């Protein structure tokens, strides 16, 4: 009975995993960010999303090109046989003499151009999210290497302290201090290993896997070397600038649309009236008329000035945003250059600190230096290693901030835990706006 329950539980758990779409596999080894990006694109269905948005745009253009539907009116007066009966039939068709249909088509075409630029930005922001997640994994890998090296240093210190304690040349308290140092570095290494696992899972989750075989080149420090070129390419593409320009044109089209609504657009009436008297004599008459709305009270006399003020405000705001973005990007790239100089300086310090620590340990083994001297040298080495890691982290944050600014987003949005979920929501919202174009 217990065996049956155990098997049932395993089956239920397997079904639950399939239901929520979690894939636990060790398929192919991911060795580069480019490879990770391709897996994310395939899993997230970026090509399908792009095609669907393009189809929506094309259908909306066709939709806005349609004529308005006519209305049919049928009425009869007199129903008794001794009464004159009159049957009327008419068709009412709005006449587009003001160019409303043509303007609506232009608005839909402009929305299609906006959709293309938004899709380009969406793809680039998606890549940036993957790059951020990959950078966090690379930094976690560096941190684990640092604590692994520091653990080895403390273990060497402990082995040397143990030999001297057994030889009676140092006190028990000195040996215990070396033990404490080794245990603390072991704890830090374990925490760094856990952080590395979390970073690996967060990256593999982007392509729908709970675990993945990810191997990063450990021989070099991951410096964001391509960020400046990437930012320059994004700026040269002019996606944001073009999108802002289209936003201004859209505001002007909205004003034109309000002007058309403020003017009287006539309707053409065509009909026939059939009159039958009690003597069964029938008279038919053709009816032709025009219905003209009287825009007496609401001529959009307030809506048009409001839209014009909105257009001016939008134009100035977008100009300020573009200028500020360029200034912030220039500052970030300058800061990144300075961090590169710091990184080189810290690297030289690290080489020297490793030599000092090794010489101090040798002096301790020979009985010339104390355990305190060894621990101070070890702490200095660890401090410089962590300083190098902090510079590396700051460099990645600065580089990704510059890339985010060039795409009209921010580092905070890219680095949030639900960044990709929010990005997908943005794509759906943009598609909804395209579908509901002009519905308001």
UniProtKB/TrEMBL annotation:
<dbReference type="InterPro" id="IPR010131">
    <property type="entry name" value="MdtP/NodT-like"/>
</dbReference>
<dbReference type="Pfam" id="PF02321">
    <property type="entry name" value="OEP"/>
</dbReference>
<feature type="coiled-coil region">
    <location>
        <begin position="100"/>
        <end position="127"/>
    </location>
</feature>
<dbReference type="GO" id="GO:0015562">
    <property type="term" value="F:efflux transmembrane transporter activity"/>
</dbReference>
<dbReference type="InterPro" id="IPR003423">
    <property type="entry name" value="OMP_efflux"/>
</dbReference>
<comment type="similarity">
    <text>Belongs to the outer membrane factor (OMF) (TC 1.B.17) family.</text>
</comment>
<protein>
    <submittedName>
        <fullName>TolC family protein</fullName>
    </submittedName>
</protein>
<keyword id="KW-0175">Coiled coil</keyword>
């Amino acid at each position: 009975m217990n065996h049956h329950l155990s098997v049932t539980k395993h089956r239920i758990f397997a079904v639950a995993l399939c239901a929520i779409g979690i894939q636990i596999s060790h398929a192919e080894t991911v060795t580069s960010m480019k490879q990770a990006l391709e897996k994310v694109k395939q899993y997230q269905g970026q090509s399908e999303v792009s095609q669907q948005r393009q189809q929506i745009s094309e259908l909306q253009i066709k939709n806005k090109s349609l004529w308005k539907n006519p209305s049919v009116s049928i009425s009869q007066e007199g129903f008794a046989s001794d009464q004159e009966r009159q049957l009327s039939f008419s068709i009412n068709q709005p006449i587009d003499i003001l160019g409303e249909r043509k303007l609506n088509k232009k608005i839909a075409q402009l929305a299609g151009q906006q959709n293309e630029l938004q899709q380009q930005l969406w793809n680039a922001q998606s890549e940036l999210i993957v790059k951020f997640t990959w950078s966090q994994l690379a930094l976690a890998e560096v941190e684990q290497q640092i604590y692994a090296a520091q653990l080895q240093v403390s273990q060497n210190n402990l082995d040397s302290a143990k030999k001297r304690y057994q030889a009676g040349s140092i006190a028990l308290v000195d040996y215990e201090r070396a033990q404490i140092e080794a245990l603390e570095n072991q704890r830090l290494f374990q925490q760094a290993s856990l952080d590395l696992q979390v970073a690996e899972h967060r990256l593999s989750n982007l392509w729908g896997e709970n675990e993945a075989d990810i191997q990063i080149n450990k021989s070099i420090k991951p410096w964001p070397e391509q960020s400046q070129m990437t930012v320059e390419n994004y700026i040269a593409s002019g996606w944001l600038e073009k999108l802002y320009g289209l936003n201004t044109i859209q505001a002007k089209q909205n004003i034109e649309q309000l002007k058309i609504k403020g003017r009287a657009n006539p309707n053409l009436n065509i009909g026939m009236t059939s009159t039958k008297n009690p003597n069964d004599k029938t008279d038919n008459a053709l009816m032709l008329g025009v219905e003209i709305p009287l825009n007496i009270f609401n001529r959009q006399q307030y809506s048009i000035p409001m839209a014009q003020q909105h257009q001016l405000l939008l134009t100035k705001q977008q100009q300020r945003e573009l200028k500020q973005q360029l200034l912030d990007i220039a500052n970030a790239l300058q800061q990144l250059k300075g961090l590169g100089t710091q990184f080189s300086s810290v690297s030289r310090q690290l080489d020297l600190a490793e030599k000092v620590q090794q010489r101090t340990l040798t002096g301790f083994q020979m009985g010339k230096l104390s355990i305190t001297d060894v621990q101070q040298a070890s702490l200095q080495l660890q401090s410089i290693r962590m300083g190098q890691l902090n510079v590396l982290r700051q460099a990645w944050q600065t580089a990704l901030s510059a890339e985010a600014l060039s795409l009209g987003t921010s580092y905070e949005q890219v680095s949030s835990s639900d960044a990709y979920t929010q990005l997908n929501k943005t794509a759906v919202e943009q598609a909804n706006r395209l579908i509901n174009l002009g519905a308001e």
